[in-house]
Amino acid sequence: MHKYLPHTESDIEEMLKVTGAQTLDDLFSSIPKKLRLTKPYNIPSALSDDNLTKHMKNLASMNQELVIFRGAGSYDHYTPSIVKSLISRQEFLTSYTPYQPEVAQGTLQYIFEYQSMVCELTGMEVSNASMYDGATSTAEAMFMAHAQTGSSKILVSETVNPRIIEVVKTYARYRDIEVLLVPSMNGETDLSFIEKNGTGSMGLIVQNPNYMGVIEDYSKFADVVHAQGGLFIMNAEGQSLGILKTPGEYKADIAVGDLQSLGLPLSFGGAYIGYLATKMQYVRKMPGRICGITTDVEGKRAFVLTLQAREQHIRRAKANSNICSNQSLMALAVTIYLSTMGKQGLVDVANESMKGAHYLYTELLKTNKFEVVYNKPFFKEFTLKAKFDVKAFENALLKKNILGPLHIGDNNLLFAVTERRTVAEMDLLVEMAVNQK
Amino acid sequence: MILEGLLYAESHEWLKVEGKQAYVGISDHAQHALGSVVFIELPKVGASIKKGDTFGAVESVKAASDLYMPVSGKIIEVNSKLESTPELLNDDPYGSWIIKIELSNPSETSALLSSAQYAPLCEE
Lengths: 437, 124
Known about the structure:
CATH topology of the largest domain in chain A: Aspartate Aminotransferase, domain 2
Structural class of chain A: alpha/beta
Strand order of the largest sheet of chain A: 2-10-9-8-7-3-4
Number of domains of chain B: 1
Oligomer: heterodimer
CATH superfamily of the largest domain in chain A: Type I PLP-dependent aspartate aminotransferase-like (Major domain)
Helix content of chain A: 25-40%
Helix content of chain B: 10-25%
Shape of chain B: globular
Low-confidence stretches of chain B: none
Number of domains of chain A: 2
Largest sheet of chain A: 7 strands, mixed
């Protein structure tokens, strides 16, 4: 029996006998002949184990291994080997979001642990079992605010990652929600614009640190948004929460963001993981699965999926979100990562990243090839304006196996530094910049 | 059980009219169909809601249902006791009003059902 194709020839024969069909094709007789594929699939035939390994090695050798100085939402942090080792266990790797949940106590337990860790990280009261990524969780937060307030206008700061704004706009379009962008003033969200234009809106979405890397001071924002009857929604990337002021401390109503930086590899298109956490008073407007803890009939601790009446399989078309899934395996990776690193480990990674970023910032400015853009506090990402051809710089770096900063328009470059970047790697980047014209 | 003297909507809310004002709750049949009610979402006082639009929602251990306005009106009071003890809707559905409204258009009540007219709707 093949691991992933469980039916043997005799299984198939037996099932055909029961159904009374002569061949497998007879099972499709209700589909008109002209709609059926009559020739073989245009895919190569199966390879032997040895040849498959060679084929995959060949493909892998076409990859260029890069030293990464780019972030903009996804970060090259180190993942301890225990994470990959544990999540590769078959009972984790092949399981899906729990649909017959209470049978899978182990799955529910790690989801519960995950939710507890997200609450601790964000300073919020309740978290769901995870979402696809930081962008969709941000859009789901907008739906929560929409349901809570009944308003059809949302304010979104222009300092939010433009790709997140695009996703928010896409979601907004299908609920007739107007997205009003709040202008950025010197790299920070313009509070006075919100004071003038926020009344009657469902709330405000901001990001910290923002897209350009600036750590914004959101101390006054919650009070302004709340006075206008809206919800204050903050997007914060997971790794930053180890040392920065949390959404909870900023009195945010909903905290969202991506957790890729906590134990997941950089990969084109994901799979990443988004979190969504809020205050208990909004729990019934929350999207996604929520795991709870209780006791069974014998008084033993038991984990359950709770508050399911919110969800689509019960609430049908009236459900506030159509998410009935979660990123279970990714949530497990995050949970193992956080358990492995511990509180101090998380702080150390953040501090190392920040130290590196500030070193690189200073060294790059010394070259006189860059101008300061914002002069504001930053964490592990920062923006500098280049005085040279940025495309040529990018190509020169690629030749040295370096993925350079992201060009974010107007000759501005967005650099990211994680704890994985060595002084030698940063010095090489600086040296490359010196030679640019 | 269907209480006489109240007006009923096909969506299983009851209405008790007192002059230009009225109390709204859910029928015994509705609470029975829902099962143990664990949560109620109440509207904001002052909101004007049209007949047939939702004014809130009730959630039981097995279902969640919207509550519909039997007639158009302005919310003048909500039974906030239900927020902490929603099970009162099961224990005493006719004694547990959910909202008190001011009727926007009193003639709309003529379209509602009497207890006798409502009874067949509860037979399934």
